[in-house]
Amino acid sequence: MVSDLLITCPEGRTVSHTSSRYSRPPVTVRIARWSATHPGRAIGGWFAFVVLCLAAMSVAGIQQASQLDLGIGESGRADRMLDEGGLESPITENVLITPAGADAEAAAADVAERMAALPEVEAVGDAVTSPDNASVTVPITMTGDEEQAEEDVQALLDVTAGVQEQYPDLLVEQAGEASVMKGFFALLEEDLGTIAILSLPITLIVLLVAFGAILAAGVPVLLALSSVASAIGLYAVASYAVPDGGTVTHLVLLIGMAVGVDYSLFYLRREREERAKGRGTLEAVEIAAATSGHSVVVSGLAVAVSMAGLYLAADVNFASMATGAILVVAIAVIGSLTVLPALLAKLGHRIDRPRVPVLWRLTNQQRPPRFWPAVLRPALRRPAVTLVVSVLALLALAAPALNLKLTDPGEESFPRSLPVMQSYDRLVEAFPSTGASHTVVVEGSAADADAVRSSLEELAGRTDADENFAHDQEPVIAQSEDGRFSSLTVGVPFGPDTDEAKHSLDVLRGELIPATVGGLSGASAAVTGDVAGGVDYNDNLSSKLPWIIAFVLVLAFVMMTVTFRSVVVGLTTVFVNLLSTVAAFGVLALVFQYSWAEGLLDFTSNGSVVVWIPLFLFVILFGLSMDYHVFVVSRIREAADRGLPIRAAVREGITSSAGTVTSAALVMVAVFGLFAAMRVIEMKQMGVGLAVAVLIDAVVIRAVVLPSLMALLGNANWWAPRWMRRTPPVSAAGPAESSELTRVG
């Protein structure tokens, strides 16, 4: 066991692992030792934990964030005023009939009669002819809130389909908030189901190539799946404090499969490496715990710290993402330290069974590697030239991100392959006011209700004469029963994310409101709606972004500096991780803003990237980059602590970890690449950004930039202030990894 080893320290002294200086092995070793010597309890405890988490989810359910939870800035304040006054806009659907004429009028009457008979319908409005006399629409108001309407809208869609069958010479179609969201979520669930089916076999294939044995490939997948299930269960409880913005379960699956497999892979590869040297199973497990186990802890903390930066955004969506990601990473780390050693001890040498004949021989060759030393040769022979060329190449790749255009996700970004979105586009073209709108909300005293209404009528009159607002339907004024709250809704003849729509909001907030309701004493006005919500969301994100970036960078620097007791390692970590991240942003801009890969990825570019993607990718990528960085630098530090010159240490550290890092990267790229194949643009952008960044990080950064930078710095890599040198430097893997281990007796 590790406690029976002699350790050759960096300063050349040989001491027993049980001497006073190393009398207490690292906590990762103590946990692994207990799990390995009590495998039944450890495995049973993990199984019970997973079952309890799933039971919690089945009992509690996941609390979804409401529109009020998601509101930000002035638009969020207006939404809360609407809610308090009971003035929330009802959920409406529109049946569009084309072309207009006698048959269309008959069809509209049929639609109205059938819809009015449905319990899901509160009211049916009069048929309205479009300004160009080409179409007719029947407005329908549904009962219940937004969530209930999405469940009930199928009954309305069935009626519309029935009328279409009765009038085959007409085009009868339906679009509205509920039907659009129903179609969107059906598409999303279909894509996610496909990913869930494909991700497991793809991950298993990569791991089979990495290990050459079925059990060894299956253990990381099993741990990852159990971590994902447990995290979703725990988040169900946490969602009552941090409600789900709608993407948490997808994110937990994405991150959980990636880190769960990676952490197990690091641990398992080190354990097999030690067994190949002739060590027993328990001894190999303890050494893996002291080395890779410690790296897993540091990596997990790095990912959690990066994700915690999202809390600074003061946004429920980001807070829920951070909570879900931190939970799944923490559970994956705990599983790697507890149940994984137990499984390895229980299986012993059987972990390498059944062997896949050809793959086993390829992955267990004893001859020195040739590929990675050849790749590293330029970086180690001419580090300055290699560093300059590689950094300039990555900066050139990042250059398109300088003009990155961000847009708010919404109906405009939904796939046009959806039939309901085609109907939505035709509806908005025929009736502009059925698209985006502004809602002005005023709070005042009940005694001023008449004055407020008069001011809102004046405001509505001013919009009638302004081309920035829609004129095909009259603005709608409403007041609460107690007279304290009033609202005015006016349509916009532009898409919600267009410059024209944003200009109309500026006109409303900056000119029309101050000239009308803004002049009322004791009254407070705010604007909400699709356009206002998007603008306020972007403004909030822009104001918080510098603080989030600073938070992540500073804590990453501190963590790596403390872990390796080297200021230079902390600085180089920030540098190389930033480099890979901005390069990924450049690729994201090329693919989605400049539409370089529309045919390859099967999408139509709208010339922008979804607004939350860059911030999300930054924190995720910085955390995942630390995953590889900690592992690779630990192996380099281990070699350096044994007395190897820095270039030899870099060569050994990278070549010895290259197989593990490559396998882990392939798993991540495969899982993230599946998301790139989704039809929902946000998921596609997220998948492409993550896959490209991991590929750049694992190949270019770890094989070119990092080795050339460390070779150039030489022994300065380990520089630290005098006060940090009081404790002898060790690698992130703990004492065992920074030392040469020799059996006693």
UniProtKB/TrEMBL annotation:
Q: Which residues form the signal peptide?
A: none
UniProt main location, coarse: membrane
Give its localization: Cell membrane
**Does the record bear Coiled coil in its keywords?**
no
Q: State the superkingdom.
A: Bacteria
User: Which UniProt keywords are given for this protein, alphabetically ordered?
Assistant: Cell membrane, Membrane, Transmembrane, Transmembrane helix
- For this UniProt entry, what's an example GO CC term? plasma membrane
Q: Which residues cross the membrane?
A: 43-62, 192-215, 222-242, 248-268, 289-312, 318-345, 384-402, 545-562, 574-597, 609-633, 654-678, 690-716
Note the InterPro entries from the entry. Answer: MMPL_dom (IPR004869), Mycobact_MmpL (IPR050545)
Report membrane topology. Multi-pass membrane protein
State if Transmembrane is listed as a keyword.
Answer: yes
- The Membrane transport protein MMPL domain, residue ranges: 106-384, 415-722
Give the protein's recorded name: Putative drug exporter of the RND superfamily
The species is Jiangella alkaliphila
